[in-house]
Specification:
FAD/NAD(P)-binding domain, globular, 10 helices, alpha+beta, 28% helix, 2 domains, 8-stranded mixed β-sheet
Length: 431
């Protein structure tokens, strides 16, 4: 086996690939599929034992928002087809964007393997290898030990930007004014819900009047702080609901001790939440805990400096960039309260007036001072408020598609990532 000298130690070269995608969440899926379809070799490494990150291991309720992603439509269709014979309930009208977690894991693996993508699960990215201001591969750790994956181009879809941070790309964390980051959530599913009577508040500002009082107000008063809001979403199986109600503030998703504290906080809230729903939420009198996520939902950590950066005004003004690589992006400023439950005072949901789509330019994916690497997903270059919009999964998967196409073109044409013709990316990712 060939080896690579790293930190004065010999590290085995375990893979040599054209494009290496680090992270198998929505952005990583889009990147790996698109790059492979452009005819280059692709390897995807993922720390979990499944694809799609927060959508599956994190048990997210639905995709939310919208974008120009073509891959997302494929995922909807394939997941639905595979679900027909095992209980997808069309009558509950939960919508195709609802996530049938375990079926989606199967569908995604089928999609990537069909395109020849090499998957490597339970593998952590430890260190970027930088030579002459260009990332040439990454050091990884897994049950087999430490290894080096050599790659012509690397796409950082880790969410937290672990590769970019290791490579020395400048960044800031959280909110510009004080570094505070959005809270984390551990999703969970419940069964035994009477859909005929049940309520499904989809946002913090959704008021639900009951015989015992307004539900959001009751939650804020009675649930253990910092929990205190009610977000409930129908799931494909009849009588099942996904709960987005646990809450952990002041969690740093790049710090293991902080993440552990966040998980413990969220998990300790699950039983009190279920007791609350049984007592106060119509249709939930007999609900029971089905499962909880194995991956905590981290909304915000590092914001990297790119060649360009997306601002809140770009979104509010629905700015059209000529060098777009993502079109038809749309969502609101989904800022969860940084100091407690519900919507942060800077967030906008019901009062969101912008009905028009916005675009994301290629420069947001290009790190400011490094070659061979692309940002993809919630770690692209943008402000805290802009991030609260583009972090939605339907936009992240489109960002991944753009990164995958750009990386593949760069490899095939022997060009630096900065020199790839954006018009060619646009022609492939399409309208």
């Amino acid at each position: 086996m060939q080896t690579f000298i790293f930190d004065n130690c010999q590290v085995p070269i375990i893979n040599d690939t054209d494009v290496l995608v680090c992270g198998g969440g929505p952005a990583g899926i889009g990147a790996a599929l698109r790059a492979a379809r452009e005819g280059v070799s692709v390897t995807l490494v993922e720390s979990q034992g499944c694809l799609e990150g927060i959508a599956t291991a994190g048990m997210m309720s639905n995709w939310g928002g919208r974008s120009s992603s073509k891959v997302l439509k494929e995922i909807y269709d394939l997941t639905y087809e595979k679900s027909k014979d095992i209980g997808w309930c069309k009558e509950n009208e939960c919508g195709l964007d609802a996530i049938y977690h375990d079926i989606q894991k199967i569908a995604l693996e089928e999609m990537l393997l069909k395109e020849g993508v090499k998957l490597l699960y339970y593998t952590f990215v430890c260190k970027a290898v930088v030579e002459e201001d260009s990332v040439t591969g990454v050091i990884v750790e897994n049950k087999s030990g430490r290894g080096f994956i050599k790659a012509k181009r690397i796409i950082d879809s880790t969410g937290d930007g672990d590769v970019a941070a290791s490579a020395g790309v400048p960044y800031f964390k959280g909110r510009e004014s004080d570094g505070k980051m959005q809270p984390a959530t551990l999703m969970f599913n419940i069964g035994g819900v009477d859909f005929k009577r049940a309520v499904f508040p989809p946002s913090f500002e959704s008021k639900v009047e009951t015989e015992k009082g307004e539900l959001q107000a009751l939650a804020k008063e009675l649930l253990p702080f910092p929990a205190g809001h009610v977000l409930l979403y129908k799931q494909p199986m009849d009588g099942t609901v996904c709960c987005n109600m646990t809450n952990a503030i002041e969690v740093d998703g790049t710090d293991a001790e902080s993440l552990t504290k966040g998980v413990l906080t969220c998990r300790s809230q699950i039983i009190p939440i279920i007791k609350f729903l049984r007592k106060f939420a119509p249709g939930y009198e007999n609900c029971w805990l089905m499962s909880s996520a194995s991956l905590i939902g981290v909304r915000e950590t590092r914001h990297f400096e790119g060649v360009e950066s997306l601002s809140k005004d770009d979104i509010l003004q629905a700015k059209y960039y000529d060098n777009w690589v993502v079109r038809r992006a749309w969502f609101n400023f989904d800022v969860h309260n940084l100091t407690g439950a519900s919507l942060d005072k800077t967030g906008i949901q019901h009062d969101w007036k912008q009905k028009n789509d916005y675009t994301i330019p290629y420069g947001c994916l290009l790190p400011k001072n490094i070659e061979g690497l692309l940002l993809s997903g919630r770690n692209i270059s943008g402000s805290h408020l802009a991030h609260s919009n583009f972090r939605i999964m339907s936009v992240c998967i489109a960002l991944g598609e753009a990164a995958g196409v750009a990386a593949a073109l760069s490899v095939k044409q022997g060009k630096k990532l900065r020199d790839v013709n954006v018009k060619e990316i646009q022609l492939i990712v399409g309208e």
